[in-house]
Fold each of these.
Amino acid sequence: GVEINDANGGLCELLHEITKDEISVEYLYAFVSPTAGKAFVVLRVADNLAAEKALTDAGFHMITDKDVCKL
């Protein structure tokens, strides 16, 4: 999962980073984060390691299963 800005275009920025590396997204779930102005997105992608690298390199913060369980 990954943390995004809970604002117009937040999800678009995330998807842009993944798809520019031609990583397929099978599905995703989005949740409001306990942190104001943030949201969590849990993704099912074709290549987890490549997606994590692309998002981390772009400055996105990865979340853990413990973060999701707090929702």
Note: The chain is about 35% helix and 30% strand.
Amino acid sequence: HRGDSAAVLDAFIAQLGRMAAPHATLVWLNPSPNQTGPALERIGFALESSFRVDMGGFDVSLERRRRGPSV
């Protein structure tokens, strides 16, 4: 999927939804927060903090998300 980060991120989130523990914490550099945010919320990962990071040519969001007990 070279150049198709949307498909890779979708696959990552789908796998995370299946494999993550009920109270898991995800800390990552998110290249597409507008795309992935709603999908992560759907699988129970609420945003706790977010900071924009300049990667020297593009920005990412450094996010900390926690999965709630109801998942």
Note: The helical segments are 5-19, 33-42.
